[in-house]
Amino acid sequence: MVKTQDTISTVLKKPDLGVFVRLRFVRIRLDHISEISVFGFGLKPSLHRFTVGTPLNQTTPDPTDTNIVEIRDVSKHYADGDVKALDDVSLQIAKGEFVSIVGPSGCGKSTLLNMIGILDRPTSGRVYFDGHCVDPSMNLDQLRSEKIGFVFQSFHLVPNLTAIENVQLPMLPGKLAPSARVARAKALLDSVGLSDRLNHRPAQLSNGQRQRVAICRALANGPSLVLADEPTGALDSQGGRAIMDILETICHDSAATLVVVTHDETLADRSDRQIRLCDGKIVSN
User: Fold this and answer.
1) Residue 187: CATH number of its domain
2) Whole-prediction pTM value?
């Protein structure tokens, strides 16, 4: 745990996912927060706190819906409509399914992942999450924090924090007591074989170990949907297989849906279903 009341200001950026997250801790310890700001998902910084907007559990879903995500007739245009990143895309992803998104560079994979993860708004069309039609009046920050876990190719761990502290970050805005946060983070790290690395900082870990910490962080709040953008891209083939074994096992055991963007056909072959994109359109599903 953090022993001194340091000021930590860290900016994590993933341009191809359209994610800009700034976590600001002003003279804090992890067990005593004086300020935490989480803002910016999508094209413009969002100043929403976790109490702004309508919570997901106060909207009315379709009780017969078995899909975690549904995208209906979604298009996404950039540069005054000249660039069509997505072109009239429709798909459904069932609860508990393992789906891979594949296709050549620039085909719209990351943009589609943006839509699935509610990180960007479509130019046209609708996105549904767990039976709810997503709209700006909802508390989207809270939805993402509680329901969706993100795993990135470049890990995006906070370098000043230890493994167990990094895993606790998504839990900070919640209602868990500090002791419960620590216990959950420790249990997650134990489950991926890092019980002896709890107090190691990212620089003291291998790439494979860093990605395991990142997976634990993504799972910290028990999400129903886990999105992984090239999760094995920074690893060798053996390390990549180990990471996918961990992701698949944990998501299966927790009944979470797993969606992976990848260029690796071997990895894609492990999924229940492949969504193949070309020029912003789904060519096979």
Assistant:
1) 3.40.50.300
2) 0.78
